[in-house]
Amino acid sequence: MVYIQHGQQPGKDDCPFCVAPSLSDEESLIVARGEHAYALLNLFPYNSGHLLVCPYRHIANYDEATAEEVAEIGSITQTAMRVIREVSRNDGFNIGMNQGVVAGAGIAAHLHQHIVPRWAQDANFFPIIAKTKALPQLLGEVREALATAWPKAGA
Predict the structure, then answer these.
(1) 92 pLDDT higher than 90
(2) Which member of 36, 50, 110, 112 is catalytic?
């Protein structure tokens, strides 16, 4: 709620995906870090466990990513799917990238891929009538569960 009510912290109005890796995993909601990319929870999730996979490098479009960045984004996405499925018992996923403001990217200047867990019964009257979405867990709790279940490097 602090982020929603006050926006980014003073002095931190830079790209949030460039700032996040310089913070603690708990503060930035980072679940896993790789060499070229990392996964963090979306501050405005569609569903619990909604992750974003970002390269560390500040690039806007997928076709600007190096082969190493593309490979690691893909690998992190696959691991995220396995971990989310293990932790959340979801039924499916929406996975995708919005490239550019006109395509719906909220932060168009920094490439990021969405991984949204879906359940057979995750749609109800809240989004339609109340224009809100019920999320049963706090972001910190979700981050801790996913980070704990994430395979350790070399394992």
Answers:
(1) yes
(2) 112
Task: Please name the residues in contact with 75: beta carbons below 8 A apart, sequence gap of 6 or more.
Answer: 34
Quick one: pLDDT at residue 135? 62
Strand partners, 53: 39, 113
Show the tokens assigned to 124: 């109800």
Could you tell me which residues are beta bridge partners of residue 94? 116
Q: Give the domains, in start order, of the chain with CATH numbers.
A: 15-148 (3.30.428.10)
Give the pLDDT band (50/70/90) at residue 138.
confident
Question: Can 112 be counted among the known catalytic residues?
Answer: yes
Using pLDDT thresholds of 50, 70 and 90, give the confidence band for residue 133.
low
What distance in Å separates the CA atoms of residue 118 and residue 18, rounded to the nearest whole number? Answer: 28
Helices (H), ranges, 58-119: 67-88
- What's the average model confidence in pLDDT over 12-21? 86
CB of 84 closer than 8 Å to CB of 115? yes
At 27, give phi and psi (nearest 5°).
-70, -40
Identity at 57, one-letter amino acid code: R
pTM for the model stands at 0.80
Look up tokens 């057979």; give the residue: 120
